[in-house]
Each structure stands twice: as C-alpha cells, then as structure tokens.
Amino acid sequence: MFGQLVYTAGGRGRPAPGRLYGLPVLRVEADPTGFWGERRLRRSARGLRRGGALRVLAPPDFARWPALAAFGLRPVEPELFVRAQSAPLALAALERRGLAPGRATVALRGTRVDRDMARTAAALCPLVRGLVIDAPQGGKELALWLRREFGVPVLPKGERGEVALSFQEGRPVPEEASLELWGPRPRLAGLRLSAPELEEADRENLPLLAALWEGGRLAPQAIKIT
Predict the structure, then answer these.
(1) Are 155 and 175 contacting, i.e. CB atoms less than 8 angstroms apart?
(2) How many angstroms separate the CA atoms of 112 and 139, rounded?
(3) H helix runs in the chain, sequence order
(4) Which residues pair with 224 in a beta bridge?
(5) Which residue, among 115, 103, 111, has the nearest Cα to 133 in the 3D structure?
(6) Burial class (CB in 10 A: 0-12, 13-18, 19+), 224
(7) How far is 157 from 142, CA to CA, in rounded Å?
(8) What angle do CA 79, 204, 22 make, to 5 degrees?
(9) What is the rounded end-to-end Cα distance, in angstroms, of the chain?
(10) Distance of CA 134 to CAs 5, 79, 83, 108, Å?
(11) Among 69, 73, 104, 76, residue whose Cα is nearest residue 215
(12) Geometric angle at alpha carbon 70, from 65 and 73, rounded to 5°
C-alpha cells in the first residue's frame, strides 16, 4: 500500500482510502503550518503506518522525511522505474547527439553486473554498433555471454562510448553524455521521463510515475522521453 501525504490548509492528518490515477493509496491531508504543524505531521505519519503504508508520495521538495522515518515510512524511490527505461533512454541520448545507434557504442558502467545491466545490454545488442561493459563484478562474464549470444563487439572497459549508462555509484564515467540510473534523483543528461496523459503538475513527478508503473497503472506506451 502506498501512502500519499498532501499539504492542505486545515488538514487534520487523518488518513482515508483513495485513488490516484486508479492506484489505491492511503491519503492523508495535513496542514504543516502553525504551532501544531509538527504534531499534525506526526499524526499523519502514525496514521499512514497503522493503515499499512510503508512508502509515501509526498509534496514536491518535501524535506521532513526524518519525521516520517521515525514511523517506518520512506519515500517512493524512482530507481527501478528509471532503470526499466534504460535502453530507450540510451537511444534517445544518441538521437539527441545526432548519432545513429548502428554506428554508435554505448558504455554500461557500474560496480557489478545486476539484472538491469544485463537486461539493458541484451536489449541494446541488436541495435548498436558495440558496447563497453565496465563492471568489476561480473563484467567479463557478461561480455563473453554477449559475444556468444549476439556476436556484438564488446570493447575493453578502458574504451569510451558515445553515451554511458551508470548503474551504480562509484565507477569513473569518462563519457560526456552520461546517464546516472541510480539514487533518488537520477541524472539523465538533460532527458526527461514523463507521462503526458497525467495532469500537468504530475507528468514529470518521478516518484509518482514509479508508483503508477509499479502498480500497473502506467503502460509502456504512456511513457515519453523528451
């Protein structure tokens, strides 16, 4: 169950079931201002936790997560959602640079090969000229598998690609066009993920998009990269 915290003048911090673009949520409206603002926020957090919420969609630039964390609540992280778009993001980054995928190399970098890196590599292999696999844990094995399965050139980790996808923090990324697919605020080299069918204020809200995607309320064709 996702929780949704909404700042509203006069909100009392009492949760109630609701729906957000068809996604079931436990919604609570709270007024954070005034002498009792902190108390109302704590009441909201307590009610969300008792109602079964563990992850919360909060107002933009919400900075009071420690108050929610005290009740076992955490934000909705966009990392898995962003990683699911990794191959289209790489292709969009190449297009923005005026490069045809069949004539370009994409570097996949991270501290280890995980499912997302392997899936992305397999998706890109039929489309790009070559790949760079730079991952101390599992990189050699993934490169061997890609050569065997797809016959695509896999360059040594010291080579550069025209575009890089970074899957974990901690590896140097020499490419000028680098997309960081990790953490609460992914850096996408100027690209934006959006859902144009949502209300304007929500279209590029990555935690919301991640929750809708996870809940089966955001189809792949509804996701746009610009």
Answers:
(1) no
(2) 7
(3) 37-50, 65-69, 79-84, 86-96, 115-124, 139-150, 206-214
(4) 194
(5) 111
(6) middle
(7) 12
(8) 85
(9) 31
(10) 40, 20, 17, 6
(11) 76
(12) 60
Nearest-angstrom CA–CA distance, 195 and 211: 13
Q: Which residue in 193, 188, 219, 189 sits closest to 205, CA to CA?
A: 193
- CA–CA separation, 120 and 165 (whole Å): 9
Smallest Cα–Cα separation from 84: which of 199, 171, 186, 155?
186
pTM: 0.93
Residue type, 17: P
pLDDT at 192 over 90: yes
Q: Are 56 and 3 in contact (CB under 8 A)?
A: yes
Tell me the residue length of the chain.
226
Task: Please write the tens of the pLDDT for every residue from 128-161.
Answer: 999 999 999 999 999 999 999 998 889 988 899 9
DSSP string computed for 26-72: EEEEE---STTHHHHHHHHHHHHHHTT--EEE--TT---HHHHHTTT
Note the pLDDT of residue 185.
92
* Residue 109 confidence (pLDDT) above 90: yes
Q: Mean pLDDT across the stretch 169-186?
A: 94
* Residue 98 confidence (pLDDT): 97
Q: How confident is the model at residue 61 (pLDDT cuts 50, 70, 90)?
A: confident
Cα gap 109→194, rounded to integer Å? 25
Tokens coding 3: 């929780």
